[in-house]
Amino acid sequence: MSEAYNETVLDHYRNPRNVGVLKNAHAVGKAENSACGDVLHLYLAIDQDRVVDSRFQTFGCAAAIAAGSRLTEMVTGATLDEVRAIRRRDVVEALGGLPPMKVHCSVLAEDALRAALEAYEH
Ligand code: FES
After folding, report:
1. Does residue 61 have an active-site annotation?
2. Model pTM?
3. Distance of CA 49 from the midpoint of ligand 1 (Å)
4. How far does the centroid of ligand 1 lie from the alpha carbon of residue 31, in Å?
5. Known catalytic residue: 105?
6. Helix/strand/coil (H, E, C) string of 55-119?
7. Which residues line ligand 1 (CB under 6 A)?
8. Over the stretch 33-69, which tens digit does the pLDDT of each residue have?
9. What confidence tier does 1 reach under pLDDT thresholds 50, 70, 90?
10. Mean pLDDT score of the chain, rounded to an integer?
11. How crowded is residue 43: how many other Cβ atoms within 10 Å of its Cβ?
């Protein structure tokens, strides 16, 4: 049923991973969805060329929470090159898909990641 959240999404929504603020983060990114006003903050701890820890906070819908949660799992332990290559469709795929009406919510995760990387690299 394409309008419903799948079990993976529901699991990340009900038990979001890596929620909170990362003290001493090396990179912080914030994204806002102009359509709905929802916001996502992403915190990355980086050691040499690798993300060693991450946290997120969002004032967002279930899909935004699930995307943020899954994103932190994807970036933690990944190299910066791998992290740079992550796009929202990768997050959506890693969640096993989102209902069509909610795919745009994954933009928050990608935008926050871009913002964090930009802040780190500049
Ligand atoms: Fe705003 Fe989903 S409705 S991010």
Report:
1. no
2. 0.95
3. 32
4. 12
5. yes
6. EEEEECCHHHHHHHHHHHHHHCCCEHHHHHCCCHHHHHHHCCCCCHHHHHHHHHHHHHHHHHHHH
7. 33, 36, 38, 60-61, 63-64, 105, 108
8. 988 999 999 999 999 999 999 999 999 999 999 999 9
9. very low
10. 95
11. 23
* Strand duo 27-32 + 50-59: pairing: unpaired
How far away, in angstroms, is 63 Cα from ligand 1 center? Answer: 7
Longest dimension (CA), the chain: 44
Residue 69 tokens read as 């949660």
Residue 3 has pLDDT above 90, yes or no: no
Active-site choice (105, 107, 112, 116): 105
The letter for the amino acid at 14 is R
- The pLDDT score that the predictor gives to residue 35 is 86
